[in-house]
Batch of 4 targets.
Target 1
Amino acid sequence: MSRGTGGISEAVRNIPYGIQQPAVSGQIAQLEEFLGATLFQRRPFSLTAAGEKLYRFIEPFFSGIDAVAFELQGGAARQIRIGASDIVLRDHLPELLQTVRKKFPQLNLTLRDDYEPELERLLEKQEIDVAVTLIEGKPPAGIQSLVLLELPLALLAPRESKLASAEELWSQDKIREPLICLPVREPICRNFQQGLNRRGVDWFPAIEVSSVDLIETYVARGFGIGLTVSIPKAEVSRMFGFCRCRTLCR
């Protein structure tokens, strides 16, 4: 347990050996009794002077365990934890991971479905190794990023809509078409609203959904205009879910 874990419960969640909290708490209590010293304050969690001294002594050993294990395994990674959105895990990663598994047949995979803010938090807490997600700005210190592709924003309209371009929306005194989008905390929505602000346009979500698939579904059903991203080389029927919606030209 390191100084940054936040306490016993948080530390136990990061131990990959299936040990339970009562066992850890019991061992710590026995260690404190043997040393005759309190190692940390429970609430809020903080190391005492004795705990800091012990931590500095054992930290070099434990920080090198992963490297030694990696070397003993022949330099081949055995597990990778990947976080991404549902659509990325379902439609884009399987083919890539099949190629990886052919090269590393003993590789164990852990896949986690979540949104960008939570994925970033999991990376910082080292609960996942890689996140495939939308990013904006510079990543936090300690996290490296690699741009895989850039996806332009797109608006989806029902097939029967009379709108021919997005400019027709911006020219309206008040946009009456409902906006369907992901939660406002998502980078897609934040970037879109920033663009609207630069145009002096007010258009706020009427329907929030949890996935791009749902945006396409509700647009196709005639509930409004959907905010999504343009996926390169995607077939219309595949990208839009139903064949009853279309993109609006810029």
Target 2
Amino acid sequence: MKKYIFILTIIFFTMLTDFVRAQQARTVFIKEGSFIPLYGSVSKNPVVVKPFYIDVYPITNSEFLEFAKKNMPYRKSKIKGIFADKSYLSYWKNDLDFGNVNPKSPVTSVSWFAAKKYCECQGKRLPTLDEWEYVAMADTKKVDARTKKEFNEYILSWYEKSRTYENEIGKTFKNYWGVYDMHGLVWEWTADFNSIFLSGESRKDKSEDKNLFCGGASVNATDLMDYAAFMRYAFRGSLKAQYSTRNLGFRCASTTKP
């Protein structure tokens, strides 16, 4: 009998350890580094990214449902117009039912305000644009794979696909940092998503900045790397904080260990 209880105890603690590890694995540490941004950068000087933590996956429908249960002002029918447009959670059946979609697919049609609030409730924040780009430039083996043709072809091929937001998280490649779905699933909010385009004077005075606001700007992309970056910066520049679109989701980050 004692032997049986001992075995059950070992099994219990093994399962508990696996659970804790699984929870910890949802956030990974990103070491300090630097990189030169592509489209949208004011200068060609390297940007230093301080060490931080970022979620391994985008936030899912089931995770956002738990948030909605505890935060009534951010439910589909309750959120104020200044915080979200009419497309907010448009595909959800009602406030507390996301309908016939995969619980593990990324939540989308969420405004910047709602994404920011969600992260704050987890003791986290949205990643900055530089943090997001820094993590996203890694492929499976290299911290910076932006010059690799196959890497950029993969990104651009995703841009041509539709309804990828219906896919489950974690089905794209695991990059150098251990992060999934930076490319191939959904676009993602960042804390300062439109900071690149805040200066109207710079747009007026610099033709290269002005070109970012039209489809023809892509002709200035000298290679696939520039073009892939151009698409991201152009998309972000078209957003406002209350916007919510079906292919736009988010993940959280943290300066200190969550």
Target 3
Amino acid sequence: MEDTRLAELTRIILALPEAQRKDMGRHASFLVRKKSFAYYLSDHHGDGIISVACKVLPGDNAALAAGDPARFYLPAYIGPRGWVALRLDVGEVDWDEVKELMTGSYLLLAPKRLAAQVKVRD
């Protein structure tokens, strides 16, 4: 049976134009036109954490991790390249926040024609 957090994350992400999910063992990668814009991580490298990693604007990853280290961290390998991870295993998950992060990451990596189809909340 699939983890409910992965199921909700998948529902949010697959609503984006041409978004796809690729399962990788306990993890999942979310792509648009072969570009990964999010990763569901479950016990990545034995860290015991369940999270979602995504691309953010330059500097936002460090700011988020420093501002709320109980929920955000810089994931191994990709953190220094502008990615941040949001823990899904501590407290109640704010799915609106997750949707905002996933949409932002998608918009950073999607082709302009697809990005233009996404309605962004003000």
Target 4
Amino acid sequence: MSDQSFTLHAIGTIHTPWTNVAACPRNGRQIDPAPACTVRLFPEYLEGLASLEGFSHLILLYWLDETKPPALVFTPPFDTERRGIFATRAPWRPNPIGLSVVAFDGLDGPDTLKVRYLDCLDGTPLLDIKPYLTTTDSQPDARMGWLDPHATRNRQTGRG
């Protein structure tokens, strides 16, 4: 067992319509139309937004700071079998890091990104932003294991 520890620093704050866990969607593609959300960067990170124009989608990593304690095995609410946490996207992980591929609708001022398809609470700490690359991040023939029958289908492709 490793005793490594890490220090993470928020680089900004995510703003969504959801103020409590019960109201938050299971994933950002459930709601149609997807609500507009914003991501506001802290001033010391604004230079990092250079050259972001032109990307249609981004990957956001964020800290799920209002989640239950970690559970390595649990029964998902839409399933009848116990599943390992690493075979799910449940938020109660050993490190509660959330990930969303969002549509990037441009900047709203020098410190604010306009995005859609988020599934986190208003005020969630942002850890990182990465450009979504179709050549690297898309795997059309990927299989979804036990989750396939439960998948939220992509409205553009009809696939999970």
